[in-house]
Each structure stands twice: as structure tokens, then as C-alpha cells.
């Protein structure tokens, strides 16, 4: 998330708890997807957080917050350790098991940061101006780092641990996703577009407008049906053909989206919505048919997420907020002044939501 250190303004207080989740029935009349909170893992300060990544092979969850990445066991909730030493702020995470390395960023320092998966120690820093989100293309094995404001992608070869290319995309960028087909797709937040990058040439080979999508943020993909899911700040999820760029559908989601995810086992698309404290769930019936499948109540501020495609568990990061702090934050922002953090210090948590049986 390109330099969004704080969320949009909220109006109510939040208290974390193990609450039952009520979901509406899907628009098709079929039973809605149901999820319930099963774990709440305290991560503590720093309270400025960004992306959450679940890594299936290791069952680890990586949460970028402040100057570190906290690593959590995605089954038990035990904190495994910390990747530290990024005072400019971390944002994205990607994992290369082949190289035994993880990648994050030191945003304000303009660096991509490689760390050992075994020791969680930083092993190398590479230049990447305004580094933000990160993904790995399994076809080339290369790491793609989004340099948000400059509209660039920095390409790193984990085998040599060096920068091998810079992709000039154009316009402010948000989140990338790998297509497992020699392509990487990235949201163009400034121009309401999706860009496709050929990972063999490291060139943009397609640009697709999504004019109904205001400020696209989250991006996920179904590699089987070749469908992209772009979540938008104006409360829409755009479904786009990953081969042609044609818009397949647009469905309503909650407010304050900052991430999208896809569960290929259950054929469910998710948008995490921090402004109203929900996850919007959409069911993929087939490649051209998508229906709302309910709303999961989370907490205000839980805007980033990841999913375990085996168990179906959702992972969301969020902190406690209070109405008075949010009101002061709103007033300061409206007056063009510095806005103090509306989050209760040290209250950041990683939340586990499991599908109902």
C-alpha cells in the first residue's frame, strides 16, 4: 500500500473478541460462506502495518509492520521471530524457497531487502526507489518489487541476488500478482488500469483500463480460469479476463479495501475492508459467473489479508481504535494538519478466521 500509514477515518470504537460471525445468504440463494474468529495473536508495536502474506510450504504468516516483519506460525499462532532493521518502513513480502530467501523492503530508504528464511537475518539490500509491494514470478523465479510513486518495477534474480531489470510502467502503482504463466499483473492506482508484464522480456505487453474502479488496491488471480480480481476504493470488485483484459463483472464490496485474495479450493474471492470492518466474500460459479456469498464481520482497521488455500483460513491484521481518537484524527486531516495515530498503542493483532463446517 503506497505510503498509507493510516487508514481512512472511522466513526466507531473497536474491541477485539472471539465473536460469532453472521453472514447473509448469497445472491444466488445458496448458503453463504461462513467464517469465525479462532485466534487473535498480539503483534504489538509498531502500529503502522501493511501487507500480510501466508506461505503454504512453511505454514508461516508474515506481517509487515513498522520497521520489521513479524513471522507467525499459521497453525498454532506462535510467534516464530522477527525480521528487523528496516527503519524506513516495511510494506510487501515475498518468499523464494529455491533461494532460501524472503524479500521485503525498507520503503523510505528506497531498498529491497533480502533475508534468510532460516535465520530471519537480513543478508542483502538492493536499490529500489519507493519500494512497496513484492511478488515472485514462479516462471522466471524473479522477484518483482513495486516502486509505487515512480511507476516502476525492480526485478531481482534471487539466484545471484542482484537487480537484473527495471520495468518502466508509468503512473503510480499498487499491488502485483503473478499469473503462473510468465506474466505479472499490477494495479495502476493513478490511471485506473491493470498492466501486464512479460517476465521473459521484463516489458509491459498489455495495458487494460478499468474505468469503473476508483483507486484499485487489492489484486488476486484465479490461474485456472484466468480471472483477475481488483478491489477498488469506491466499493467495487472488478473481475477482469487475464488474457484479453475484458471486464467480466463488477460486484459490490465494503469500504476501505486494501487487499484481495482468492481461495482456489473453495472458489471464493475476498476483499478485506478496513473502513467498515468486514470481508466481502464472492463466489466464483464459473469463469463468467460471480455472485455475492456473504459478509464476514472483522474489526475496523483490518484492511490487509491473506488466505491458506488448503484449510481456507483467512489471516487479517488490525489494531484497536477509539471514537475520540478517530474524531481528532478526522478533524486534523480536514484542517490539513498532522494527524496523530488513531490506534491504541501496541494493539496490533493478527486475526485467524476459519471457515464454518
Keywords:
Methylamine Dehydrogenase, Chain H, 28 strands, single chain, disordered N terminus, mainly beta, 1 helix, 3% helix, 4-stranded antiparallel beta sheet, globular, 357 residues, 49% strand
What does this structure look like?
By secondary structure, this protein is mainly beta. The protein has a single domain, classed as Methylamine Dehydrogenase, Chain H. The protein is built from one helix and 28 strands. Strands 1-28-27-26 form a four-stranded antiparallel sheet, with no helix packed on it. A four-stranded antiparallel sheet has the order 2-3-4-5, with no helix packed on it. A hairpin with a 4-residue loop joins strand 12 and strand 13. The chain is globular and about 50 Å long. The two termini are 33 Å apart.
Give a short synopsis of this structure.
The chain is 3% helix and 49% strand. It has 357 residues and is mainly β.
Amino acid at each position: 500500500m503506497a505510503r498509507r500509514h493510516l487508514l481512512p477515518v472511522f466513526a466507531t470504537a473497536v474491541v477485539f473478541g472471539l465473536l460469532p460471525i453472521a453472514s447473509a445468504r448469497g445472491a444466488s440463494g445458496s448458503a453463504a460462506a461462513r467464517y469465525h474468529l479462532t485466534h487473535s495473536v498480539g503483534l504489538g508495536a509498531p502500529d503502522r502495518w501493511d501487507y500480510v502474506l501466508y506461505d503454504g510450504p512453511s505454514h508461516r504468516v508474515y506481517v509487515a509492520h513498522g520497521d520489521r516483519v513479524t513471522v507467525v506460525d499459521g497453525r498454532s499462532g506462535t510467534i516464530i521471530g522477527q525480521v528487523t532493521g528496516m527503519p524506513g518502513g516495511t510494506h510487501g513480502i515475498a518468499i523464494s524457497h529455491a533461494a532460501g530467501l524472503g524479500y521485503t523492503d525498507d520503503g523510505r530508504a528506497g531498498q529491497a531487502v533480502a533475508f534468510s528464511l532460516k535465520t530471519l537475518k537480513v543478508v542483502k539490500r538492493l536499490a529500489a526507489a519507493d519500494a512497496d509491494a513484492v511478488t515472485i514470478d514462479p516462471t522466471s523465479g524473479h522477484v518483482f518489487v513495486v516502486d509505487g510513486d515512480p511507476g516502476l518495477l525492480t526485478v531481482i534474480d534471487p539466484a545471484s541476488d542482484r537487480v537484473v531489470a527495471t520495468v518502466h510502467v508509468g503512473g503510480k502503482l499498487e499491488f502485483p500478482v503473478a499469473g503462473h504463466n510468465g506474466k505479472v499483473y499490477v494495479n495502476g492506482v493513478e490511471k485506473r488500469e491493470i498492466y501486464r508484464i512479460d517476465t521473459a522480456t521484463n516489458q509491459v505487453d498489455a495495458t487494460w483500463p478499468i474505468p469503473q474502479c476508483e483507486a484499485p488496491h487489492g489484486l488476486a488471480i484465479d490461474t485456472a480460469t484466468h480471472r483477475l480480481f481488483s478491489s477498488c476504493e469506491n466499493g467495487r470488485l472488478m473481475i477482469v479476463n487475464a488474457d484479453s483484459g475484458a471486464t467480466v463483472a463488477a460486484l459490490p464490496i465494503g469500504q476501505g479495501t486494501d487487499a484481495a485474495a482468492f481461495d482456489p479450493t473453495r472458489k471464493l474471492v475476498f476483499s478485506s475492508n478496513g473502513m467498515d470492518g468486514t470481508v466481502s466474500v464472492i463466489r466464483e460459479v464459473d469463469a463468467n459467473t460471480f455472485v455475492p456469498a456473504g459478509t464476514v464481520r472483522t474489526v475496523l482497521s483490518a484492511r490487509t489479508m491473506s488466505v491458506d488455500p488448503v484449510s481456507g483460513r483467512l489471516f487479517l491484521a488490525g489494531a484497536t481504535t477509539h471514537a475520540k481518537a478517530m474524531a481528532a484524527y478526522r478533524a486534523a486531516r480536514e484542517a490539513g494538519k498532522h494527524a496523530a495515530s488513531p490506534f491504541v498503542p501496541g494493539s496490533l493483532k493478527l486475526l485467524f478466521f476459519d471457515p464454518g463446517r
